[in-house]
Amino acid sequence: MAQAWRCSGLRWAASGPVLAWDGGRRSALTWGKRVAFGVADGGVRTCVGARGHACPVRAVVPGRSTGARCEECARLDRAHSVAADTIADDPRPYHVYLAWFGPGMLKVGITAEERGSARLLEQGAVCFSWLGVGPLMAARRTEELLRAALQVPDRIPYVEKRAVRSGLPGSAAERATEIEALHGRAVGLADWPESLTREPCQVVDHVGEFGLDGLPPAVGEVGELVAGGRVSGELVAAAGPDLHLATERGVVVLDTRLMTGWEIVPAGEGREFTVPVREFRDLKEAAGVQDGLF
Questions:
Q1: How far apart are CA 286 and CA 124, in angstroms?
Q2: Angle at CA 119, nearest 5°, toward 116 and 125?
Q3: Which terminus, N or C, of the chain has the lesser number of Cβ atoms within 10 Å?
């Protein structure tokens, strides 16, 4: 019986994307590399636990869940979380950032200053700029200020990010235009928190890191993994948690968060792709994405 591994997600190292596995093993990913694996026959997807602790009941979780946690472990994971606003006394300085994922797709967010740009790579931000830095609550107030005054969202659905990556403007200058304009409006807001220091607009572009130059359009995304399913394709790009894989049916996007909780086994020599794929045409209509973005 082939040895099974459990994936803990995609990580962004200085050298590029790597798949991390329970136990500390890592698999470096390079463009053109064949990514191939199977899901153990007869297996079920089990909860990954919370905050470094295993799920006490090894609960079964849905294949389509990107969190791979049962309700109780999800609650525990968010009980001490900046994202869930359950921490108010974190003494670390925080960056407020503006991120761009494609035409008309900008968001505001915050990340601990010590993390650098890791959060932006994890989200698949095509380009970004810092907006300000200061205490956590001042950063939160600034984030809320931009949402209220400029209608800047703090989330962009992944389906929308994925569907436009192959049609981005060709130059870094073009891709920076919307962030530069929003940055200018944001730093001029009257109610800017006094304890948050404004930072100049310096747009960082991730097209090279993600391998998005000349990226072929994707036909769809993996909806879920299933027991006995197989995935195989050549890696043509990676952004955030996503791998863009060239397969016999075209480029398919795999959200690596769907791999967590499953027992993953070697795929052998075959090039089968037997997990469910949702076509982007149907997803675009469901999400209400404007035709002009495609």
A1: 22
A2: 110
A3: N
HSE-CB for 186 with a 13 A CA cutoff: 32
Average pLDDT over residues 195-207: 97
Which residues lie closer than 8 Å to 160 by C-beta, 6 or more apart? 101, 102, 105, 287, 289, 293
Crossing angle for the helix pair 136-150 and 172-187, to the nearest 10 degrees = 100
Residue 8 Cα distances to 5, 20, 26, 48, angstroms: 10, 5, 10, 9
Query: 79 falls in which pLDDT band (50, 70, 90)?
Result: confident
Q: Which of 86-90, 179-183, 203-207, 268-272 has the lowest mean pLDDT?
A: 86-90
Q: How far is CA 238 from the centre of its chain?
A: 10
The pair of structure tokens assigned to 223 is: 């909806």
Per-residue pLDDT, averaged over 103-116, amounts to: 95
**DSSP structure class, residue 269:** T
The rounded mean pLDDT for the chain is 90
DSSP letter, residue 102: E
| Cα angle: 41, vertex 5, 264; to 5 degrees | 35
Cα 10–Cα 13–Cα 19 angle in degrees, nearest 5: 25
Q: For the chain, give the percent of residues with pLDDT over 90.
A: 79
More confident residue, 15 or 40: 40
CA atoms within 13 A on the CB side of 221: 24
pLDDT bucket at 289, cuts 50 / 70 / 90 = very low
What does the chain come to in residues? Answer: 294
Q: Which residue has the tokens 């000349």?
A: 214
CB under 8 Å to 272, separation ≥6 — which residues?
Answer: 230, 232
Measured CA distances, 292 to 167, 220, 251, 282 (Å): 11, 18, 21, 16
Q: Give phi and psi for 9, each to the nearest 5.
A: 115, 175
